[in-house]
Amino acid sequence: MRDPEVGELNGHPRERVERMKLKILLADDEINILKNLQAVVPWEELGVEVVGLAKNGQIALELAREHRPHLVLCDIRMPVMDGIEFLGALREFDAEAEVIMMTGYQDFSYVRSVIRYEVRDYVLKPIDYEELARTIHRLAEGIRERSAEQQTIQQEWKQVFRLAYEKVLYDLLMDVGGGAAKPFLKLSELSGENLSFAMLLIDVADYSRKENRWDERERKLWNFAVHNIVQEHFAGLEVPHSVLQMRGGEWCVLIERMPPDTFSRSDCAVWADDLRRKVGSYLKLQIRIALHPAAVSLDRLAKTYKHLQRSLNLTPGAEAEVIVPEPKRAGQEETQRLWDRIEEMVTGLKRCDRRKTEAALRELNDSFQRLPDASYERVEPILHYVCLHLLREMRALDVIGREDEIDYWNRIDRSPGIRETLAVINRLIDQSIDSAMKKKTSDVLMLSAKDYIERNLSSELSIDQLAEYLGISGSYFSLLFKQHFGETFVEYVTRQRMEMAKSLLALSDKNVTTVGLMVGYAERRYFTRVFSKYTGMLPSEYRERSHRQQGEPIMAANPRWTDKET
Hints:
The protein is of the alpha/beta class. It has a 5-stranded parallel β-sheet, with helices on both faces. Strands 6, 7, 8, 9 and 10 form a 5-stranded antiparallel β-sheet that branches. The chain has 4 domains: 136 residues, 3-Layer(aba) Sandwich (Rossmann fold), CATH 3.40.50.2300; 130 residues, 2-Layer Sandwich (Alpha-Beta Plaits); 107 residues; 107 residues, Orthogonal Bundle (Arc Repressor Mutant, subunit A). The chain is elongated and about 100 Å long.
């Protein structure tokens, strides 16, 4: 059962179906009644279309099979096949149609026999057409209401499935287990054993330095902007895909290629290059993209992700083109061992495993000590990447303060040699381990919750969903969340969405409906109501006021990215 606290978080798609056109079938053996029904009842106003006229039950049955009407208005007494027999045959293939029976006073003896067929209402002859119109209106609104509820349920199930599927992919990429993956290994009717992907890794160029200059609001906005452009880009290609934010400024795009021989490296390269230009044009931000040259199976996701990550950071001039890493060449065993130690260090830090982290650090130092002098030139960029990689991971884990980070950057900027760089790495690891160990388990859980909310702000969010993700109960999650953030889950998510909406309205030309969708609200009216309650003004009013204010916007390099909507 969904926590009642979550009720106000997301709009529902009712508005899209509340005036859906309904179909009605009219059946009566008196031709004048059929003509009057067709002419007198205001069908257009009711949003109902007459799809068939039948003078007996047999014809009505054929028309019902053909048109599947939402409503049936049927006389009880008709030749060939009467209304009761027609109803029995109708219910064999259609249990949903709403049926109104037309009866005379003399027909009341028949009424009892049609109760089992779930007749919704009865109309007495002679017909009161105004009363009939009110009855049809009431039934039609009930049908639309149920349709809206069914659509909402279907959307929620799709959302649950998508989030579960993406979590499985994320866990496989991060190599944190995959036993729960089996139920979710289908986006189509495909078997998980045969599933493969085209993989692209997208990284904001020089992200660590940019992040160091941004405040929290700017960081969120830039990540949100890039994520949405990536999502819209691949959605426009109409290929089954998942866009997974792995950490700040980095996204992994997995495109289903089924069977593997449908993989097209050239198509993926064109898509990646178009995306790179699009982000550069809209945001004046450079991104680096690495494309794996072949289809990737499920069991190779983690290794391929790490391979692309290394390739991006060790390829000079990666901002200029899409990188397609070459296969490993002979003589690279030393470099591979160094990378293995680096990954063990990062994994140990993430799991607060001091023993594993320190062991990997010792092995890393030993590996560098054993390197021949001729290898130093090749290894130097690796060490530089280690510093960037660790700083980025420590920032994501919230185990390094801003002042300490600036100090580390100053040390790196002085271009130290290998020995000095190793000293910086050792100091960084020691400080990070101490900070990680001091953090309470509850703090780590809430940090994960904050990161999950930030990555899924445009999706439906609920307490049960977050609690399941963290592996704790909903009630315990709610308690921890309130203690940690000082507000309820709903209050926090609403505030995050409204602040993001304010930034999007001020800094982009996207229309109000699109902004609402981007921050998790399916209905414009619902989004407008929440926004007005939060800010005291309509979204359009807030945008106009923001544009009138003086001062440079946060994204001054290119303050607006458009979707060509009005």
